[in-house]
């Protein structure tokens, strides 16, 4: 771990972040970071325990003079999104994140940084460890599996937490105070198909779409970024329509909450169309690059001759799948009518796998309105069922309804304006914060979300602003000193 990270100010925050980033913590494989956090709490002599789902809770009494303030919950999630560039050699299961300083930014070499939500977790750790920071009674809640299912929040039972105010430290713009978020649901389409013999006189090709920015499928969905699965499907559709292209296999995207950056397809074309196919594809590639020249300047689409396979996808099923993916909505579906510039409903076609007689298409549909969420999910479901897919709607979690009359919101607004000379942006976000889920079992808890500036979350371009972390740390300390009385 680079010493330059540990020397950054505030050192209490960056040192805890460095400690945390040395521990592998992929979603659904949090055993090591759970033990790390329990050992940390126990080393401080604080009450530390797991709940049934393996969330970690650490309790710290109020500092002298703060006993009359409302008890608070400081909350962050332990897991992180694991994404890396194709040419980066890195094992997330065994290696700590390799961080470095780039001007005002902390970055990772070729991988996600883990600032989402590592900086929030590190903040709580620094507060728990401190003997000089005034604060009310604190329950530190470290949830698991936020990134791939909100499992920790969904399974946290009522009655465990005693706090009256929850500070969620998982917002990614330091001038924003979040009071609402989107819910989500996974839409998964599957089906089988027969494999056919490769026709005589065929030529094999590999198509590669790469170089896209990727990003958070909620926070970045409105930016007009390229989706590798949709771009690949466009290429397959055109070549099938005009030259009878047949699919051998497709592998596109990875995580449901990340906009897919790469897709690779192996296909065949009749040798009689070989020259025309290559010419036509270059024209389409030029058109696509022109469309994305502003948002995706590094987009690369390569078509290279490859080995001839033995089997290809059944043409009838292939046509249906290609058309269904073309028809399936990707991106913003509806903007909020109540909050300016807020995406209400969206979908990310995150994963497309066609191989060995099986098709899998994975989507994450988000919305701050439950009825709209299921409206879009059913639209996707219908498109895929029409071509013979079995479709499952799973992992549904609720959004967080804004409370404009929140007491803690008024505290944060006043502090922010005093420290920065301007009012904060009070917003709802299109990401899946855990507040809405936690509020199901703790409906009377006053909740707020804020955090330092983090860009490129869920992609290898993830980076955290150093100056913003300093601004945020000062904000946190003042909030702790001004929690309302009981």
TrEMBL record:
<dbReference type="Pfam" id="PF01546">
    <property type="entry name" value="Peptidase_M20"/>
</dbReference>
<dbReference type="Pfam" id="PF07687">
    <property type="entry name" value="M20_dimer"/>
</dbReference>
<feature type="domain" description="Peptidase M20 dimerisation">
    <location>
        <begin position="208"/>
        <end position="293"/>
    </location>
</feature>
<keyword id="KW-0862">Zinc</keyword>
<keyword id="KW-0482">Metalloprotease</keyword>
<dbReference type="InterPro" id="IPR011650">
    <property type="entry name" value="Peptidase_M20_dimer"/>
</dbReference>
<dbReference type="InterPro" id="IPR002933">
    <property type="entry name" value="Peptidase_M20"/>
</dbReference>
<keyword id="KW-0224">Dipeptidase</keyword>
<dbReference type="InterPro" id="IPR001160">
    <property type="entry name" value="Peptidase_M20C"/>
</dbReference>
<keyword id="KW-0645">Protease</keyword>
<dbReference type="GO" id="GO:0070573">
    <property type="term" value="F:metallodipeptidase activity"/>
</dbReference>
<dbReference type="GO" id="GO:0006508">
    <property type="term" value="P:proteolysis"/>
</dbReference>
<protein>
    <recommendedName>
        <fullName>Cytosol non-specific dipeptidase</fullName>
        <ecNumber>3.4.13.18</ecNumber>
    </recommendedName>
</protein>
<keyword id="KW-0378">Hydrolase</keyword>
<dbReference type="GO" id="GO:0046872">
    <property type="term" value="F:metal ion binding"/>
</dbReference>
<dbReference type="GO" id="GO:0005829">
    <property type="term" value="C:cytosol"/>
</dbReference>
<keyword id="KW-0170">Cobalt</keyword>
<keyword id="KW-0479">Metal-binding</keyword>
<comment type="similarity">
    <text>Belongs to the peptidase M20C family.</text>
</comment>
């Amino acid at each position: 771990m680079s010493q330059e990270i540990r020397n950054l100010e505030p050192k209490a925050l960056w040192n805890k972040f460095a400690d945390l980033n040395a521990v592998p913590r992929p979603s659904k494989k949090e055993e090591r970071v759970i033990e790390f956090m329990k050992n940390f709490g126990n080393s401080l002599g604080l009450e530390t325990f797991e709940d049934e789902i393996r969330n970690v809770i650490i309790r710290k009494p109020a500092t002298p003079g703060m006993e009359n303030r409302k008890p608070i919950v400081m909350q962050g999630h332990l897991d992180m999104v694991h994404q890396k560039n194709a040419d980066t050699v890195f094992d997330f299961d065994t290696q700590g994140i390799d961080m470095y300083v780039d001007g005002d930014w902390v970055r990772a070499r070729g991988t996600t940084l883990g600032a989402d939500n590592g900086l929030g977790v590190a903040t709580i750790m620094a507060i728990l460890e401190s003997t000089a920071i005034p604060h009310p009674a604190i329950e530190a809640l470290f949830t698991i599996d936020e990134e791939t299912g909100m499992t920790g929040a969904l399974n946290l039972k009522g009655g465990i937490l005693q706090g009256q105010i929850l500070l969620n430290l998982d917002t990614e713009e330091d001038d924003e105070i979040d009071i609402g978020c989107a819910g989500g649901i996974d839409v998964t389409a599957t089906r089988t198909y027969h494999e056919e013999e490769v026709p005589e006189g065929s030529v094999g090709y590999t198509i590669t779409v790469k170089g896209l920015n990727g990003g958070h499928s909620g926070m970045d969905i409105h930016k007009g970024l390229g989706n590798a699965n949709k771009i690949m499907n466009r290429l397959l559709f055109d070549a099938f329509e005009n030259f009878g292209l047949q699919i051998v296999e497709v592998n596109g995207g990875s995580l449901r909450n990340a906009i897919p950056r790469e897709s690779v397809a192996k296909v065949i074309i009749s040798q009689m169309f070989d020259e025309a196919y290559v010419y036509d594809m270059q024209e389409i590639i030029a058109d696509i690059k022109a469309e994305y020249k502003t948002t995706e300047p590094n987009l690369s689409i390569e078509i290279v001759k490859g080995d001839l396979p033995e089997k290809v996808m059944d043409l009838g099923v292939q046509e249906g799948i290609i058309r269904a993916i073309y028809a399936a909505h990707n991106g913003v579906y509806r903007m909020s009518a109540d909050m300016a510039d807020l995406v209400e409903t969206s979908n990310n076609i995150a994963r497309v796998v066609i191989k060995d007689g099986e098709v899998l298409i994975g989507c994450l549909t988000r919305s701050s309105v439950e009825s709209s969420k299921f409206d879009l999910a059913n639209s996707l479901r219908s498109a895929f069922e029409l071509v013979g897919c079995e479709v499952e709607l799973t992992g549904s979690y609720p959004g967080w309804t804004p409370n404009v009359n929140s007491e803690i919101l008024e505290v944060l607004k006043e502090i922010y304006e005093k420290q920065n000379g301007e009012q904060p942006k009070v917003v709802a976000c299109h990401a899946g914060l855990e507040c809405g889920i936690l509020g199901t079992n703790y409906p009377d808890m006053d909740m707020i979300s804020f955090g330092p500036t983090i860009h490129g979350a869920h992609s290898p371009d993830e980076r955290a602003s150093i100056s913003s972390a300093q601004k945020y740390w000062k904000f946190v300390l003042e909030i702790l000193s001004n929690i309302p009385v009981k």
